[in-house]
Amino acid sequence: MSFPYLSRLFGLALVPLMAVTAHAAEVTGAGSSFVYPVLSKWSASFHEKTGHQINYQSIGSGGGIAQIKAGTVDFGASDAPLPASDLAQFGLGQFPVVIGGIVPVVHIEGIAPGRLRLTGPLLARIFMGEIKTWNDPALSRINPGLKLPASAIFVVHRSDGSGTTYNFTNYLAKVSPRWQKSLGFGTSVPWPVGVGGKGNEGVSAYVNQIRNSIGYVEYAYALQNRMAYTQLENAAGRFLEPNNAAFAAAAATADWAHAEDFNLIMTNAPGEKAWPITATTWAIMYKQPKDATRARAAFEFFKWAFEHGQPQAGSLDYVPLPPSLVRQIEGYWHERFKS
Amino acid sequence: MSAIDIRYAPAAFERRQRRNARVSALGWAACALAFALLASALLDILFLVFHRGLSALNLQLFLTPTSGIGGGLLNAIEGSVLLTLGALLLAVPIGVLGGIYVSEYSRDWLAHGVRFVADVLVGVPSIVFGLFGYLTMVTALDWHFSMAAGCITLALMIAPYMLRTTELALRGVPHELREASYALGAGQAATVTHVLLRECASRVLTGILLATAISMGETAPLIYTVNWSNYYWNGHLTHEPVAYLTYVIWSFINEPFASAHALAYAAALMITLFVLALTLLARLSLNRLTVRRSA
Hints:
The complex is a heterodimer of chains A (about 350) and B (about 300).
Chain A: H1 4-14, E1 26-31, H2 36-50, E2 53-58, H3 61-70, E3 75-78, H4 84-90, E4 92-107, E5 117-118, H5 120-127, H6 137-142, E6 154-158, H7 163-175, H8 177-182, E7 195-197, H9 199-209, E8 213-218, H10 219-224, E9 228-229, E10 231-233, E11 239-240, H11 244-253, E12 278-286, H12 292-308, H13 310-315, H14 323-336
Parallel strand pairs in A: 1-2, 1-3, 5-10, 6-7, 6-8
Antiparallel strand pairs in A: 3-12, 4-8, 4-9, 4-12, 10-11
Helix pairs in contact in A: 5-7
Chain B: H1 2-8, H2 10-56, H3 60-63, E1 66-67, E2 70-71, H4 74-104, H5 109-123, H6 126-140, H7 147-171, H8 175-183, H9 188-216, H10 220-225, H11 245-252, H12 258-294
Antiparallel strand pairs in B: 1-2
Helix pairs in contact in B: 1-2, 2-12, 4-5, 4-7, 4-9, 4-11, 5-7, 6-7, 7-9, 8-9, 9-12, 11-12
């Protein structure tokens, strides 16, 4: 038997390999795609500092919850908090990791980013299919300076279950009783109108391609794809443009102190300068981990990220957790988690 | 019947001939259209991958591991190569030996069973192998996301494929050769190793190379079994996730940042070139066989 190419193939493949690093703890995580950029950036710096390796796979919040429940990873990450009953049943604890904003984006000829004004109830009516054209009187009333076209509104939402949808629909349910009654909120809802895009990237692509469309994406996608995000009226009645300061204001005014297991959705936050669709990603871990060394390294990592990772978070359009919240989280760790 | 019709009705014959010509032209046009459709889709994909991938290529990709949403791809290249080598190490013996068994001992009821199972497995979508690997190795055996789980899952996927190509290669060998070998006093084992395999080695190798290309380009089975790592493989077979190129394509293209998109396109280009190279290699080994035969 002679396989002349096989040996050559093996030889070729083995040349550039076999770099083995000094052995430190390896931590694996999986879940929310929202935190992937910042988590992986943090883990690179943390690796340089300590030698610990943090591996994170972005498979979506639902996947993160499933994996931590199955015990295949050391931490899960989700854009929607786990209810107390689930935490108790599986012996899990959760805490916020990073904060970011979700923004409505539109594609209307001549409308620049930050120009169009919307309110929560109007947004709900658009996504329910009740406001059908851009020149609807309700929209013109709050946008006196803008020339809005007489064209039909094309709604774009997510086709997959997602934390972004969870926070977006949670906000709509808070500001529109009719939305709450007919659609409720969750990682996916039975959208009455529009088309679905897969992931933030899919929604961005649709909105960029289709004229007179409206969708909702995480802030970073709106910025990186140079999309026309809108202003929103917040709970205090002020129109705001989305930016890191507005997300931070929402995080600061949220009532974390009274939220058991940090189970708090920050949408429609009360502050004057608070962006109304601000979202958190939670890390979920076992209170009594199977592997204490790895769990300890994971806590070290999050502690390091809270204390030193903020500039990197800012550069990727995330908002650092407010100091009071970090103190509360560290207290929660000591109180709830073994090791 | 028709022959009689034709002899006695030349007009009908001409009509039929004209109709046949029309139908034939229509058929050819449909074939050409189908070909053009397939070819243009392939060309479009290749153009996109080369266009975006080439502009994303740089030396750093081959020298450094990924760091967040930027950096290089060396960890993913290493992981992809190791996963494929590991899968081959497991699948080649099973696939080739299984193929020999099924082809040369085919009267056996067990051989029928093996061939049937292999046929079914070849048709199973790759994500089902992923789910199987996840349920058995990642969770039930508690190996977590790891090199071992990935290699075994890939091996399970490509072994039936190799088994079938090996079997077909052996069956392609003329029966006279077997008879000649037995006539010279060789046993079954000697016939297989010294006569049959020597005759169809390049066909068997082609099957192995194509299976390698398949396993190199897979994403779904690995998402379920290997996870992802920003670092080089640390030598652990279980409990540690591994990086691989197709993950970069699948995941990084969905990130908002241009640096992540560049990595995804570069990874797509690398996989495409690698699969292209393997396919050409497979073609070459087949051609060599023909040349040797005719010489």
